[in-house]
Here is the input.
Amino acid sequence: MLILDTDHLVEFDRGSDAGEVLRQRLENADEEITTTIISAEEQFRGWLAQIHRIRDPHQQVVAYERLQRRIEFYAAWEVLPWTQKAADVLVNLRRQGIRIGTMDLKIAAIVLSHRATLLSRNMVDFAQAPGLSVEDWTLPES
Here is the structure.
């Protein structure tokens, strides 16, 4: 199973050069491709904060359109939930003194609980989680 981190989802959705490299690699993958509820939370928090900052309701139209597209985007993906097993893994990672952001730690916990591979550009932080398989698929294969 391949689990996309938020940064890979953003590139995939934007259709950037990195996103196109990712799209091609995913098309050739033989594994199930998913993301996490944590990535959805990160993105929705951002969109909702943006909407909240805009006072003119007419200017909110574009922000709500983007939020609508984000909802439709996630509806097309399998989104792995936050489970008791993932929570247990998170507690264990914290006991080990892993010092990365809470959201990244939660994503790592979900990935580890599924014995999957995380696709992320954030190699430095995720490399701190013991046993976590992480790769950056926005780079062309060598």
Remarks:
- The beta strands are 2-4, 33-36, 79-80, 117-119, 133-135.
- Helices lie at 6-14, 17-27, 37-53, 60-75, 84-95, 102-113, 123-126.
- The two ends are 22 Å apart (CA to CA).
- The mean pLDDT is 94.
